[in-house]
Amino acid sequence: MNTGNKFITVMAAILFSGLLIGCSSDDPKKEDTPELVTKATLTFSSVGGGTPIVVSATDPDGDGVQDIIVEGPINLAANTTYGLGIELINGLVAVGQPGYSITSEVEEEGTEHQFFFSWTNSIFFNPEGNGNLDTGTDPVNYQGGTNSVDANGLNLGLTTIWTTSSTIASGNFRIVLKHQPGSKTATSNASVGETDLDLTFILNVQ
Question: Regarding beta strands 194-205 and 74-76, do their DSSP bridges make them parallel or antiparallel, or are they unpaired?
């Protein structure tokens, strides 16, 4: 073999070796990223029946320049217990396609997600207090459905239960969805993880 052929053979071996390294299973895995939500719908259903109260917030371009548009206010009857269901979609994906229903993704990845809540002016009788945004163990009723908690029995919050104040009141109702892969615990609060959603509504108890 002449010198030129030896050089070509050696270079080919080096390049092939580099390709093998580049395809190695030791490559870094794709990191978890926040969910893209373009519309969030809140449905308050009275346990005593009646017409549900539905409000929504939309962000048509997702991470684009348009601001989130929050509907409202939320008008609830005094001294009434409601189940709250939350639906999330990514409208930048066609209906029925993977990635359209963010509700399903959050439920499937429940061990990595949690909704946190806060409110002002004592608009709720139960739970008491002002929410668990700052202290994860403060009372919120993660009840009402199979998606209230995750597969480990930790709080998730796609469904929750709320009883309004017995007196007329108005305040802010804030919902924050956190993405907490590997860091969600029974005591973690809203300072842990990436924020998927952060919405504030005006809520009136009438």
Answer: parallel
Which pLDDT score, from 0 to 100, does residue 6 have?
Answer: 40
Rounded Cα gap, residues 141 and 131, in angstroms? 10
Question: DSSP assignment of the chain, as one string?
Answer: --HHHHHHHHHHHHHHHHHHHHT-TTSPPPPP-----SEEEEEEEETT-SPPEEEEEE-TTTTSSSPPEE---EEE-TT-EEEEEEEEE-TTS-TTSTTSBHHHHHHHTGGGEEEEEEESTT-EEES-SSBSSS-TTS--B--SSTTSB-TTS-B--SEEEEEE-SS-EEEEEEEEEEE-TTT--SS--TTSSEEEEEEEEEEEE-
Cis peptide bond prior to 127, omega within 30° of 0: yes
The alpha carbon torsion through 27, 25, 29, 21 (nearest 10 deg) reads 20
Mean pLDDT per block of 10 residues along the chain (206 residues) reads: 42 37 40 76 96 94 73 96 97 89 96 98 97 96 97 98 97 97 95 95 97
Looking at residue 84, its amino acid is L
Amino acid at 59: D
Dihedral angle of Cα 172, 126, 154, 90, to the nearest 10 degrees: -40
